[in-house]
Predict the structure.
Amino acid sequence: MSNKVQVFDKSGSAAGELELQDKWIEREKGEQAVHEAVVAYLAGLRAGTAKTKTRSEVRGGGKKPYRQKGTGRARAGSSRSPIWRGGGTIFGPTPRSYKKSLNKKVKRLAVRRALAERLDAGQIVVVEEFAFSAPKTKDASAYLKNIDATNRPVVIVSDSVMDDNSNNTYLSFRNVAGCSIVGAGWVNAYILLSGQKIVITKEALEQLGERIAKED
């Protein structure tokens, strides 16, 4: 399979091809790593704030509802017993963390495998740079159309340098329907697999490649 991708200039015109380095991609292994990385990422998004009250936390119930004997009913010491309506909950959810840990090698392998899949599917587009003189959603939509990135969702990967130009890039893309923008340092397997098109700058691709490159 070829490692070459189409490159566009800041105006949206074709500017040649770029070949990704072999150490940035992985085609022979990594399916399990991708699965684990996606599960871990989605688990980390869970708030884990679900909570129910136990019988000791429900207000009231301090007084015995009725006498112990002579009523013909079962014994009851509190109206906040779990078997009573309005009582506490047994084994209900409590606040917890759903975070799953992955070592760095697995994370890097997952990104390399996801990058290879997007590359083989022809869904990676490289741009030399984004150059928006002002934050305009209309210009961002027109640019995506010029580089044939109209299939949604689209993931924009920019370099992590925050200057006036990159800020205009973020403000221009943030309101485009079905479009999300992320810095190269935050790219993971889930983000790469979540887009029909991955539009990434040369600088961001270099940063991502250095982070996920195979170890010697």
Observations:
- The longest strand covers residues 14-19.
- The longest helix spans residues 104-120.
- Residues 65 and 71 are 11 Å apart (CA to CA).
- The chain has six helices and six strands.
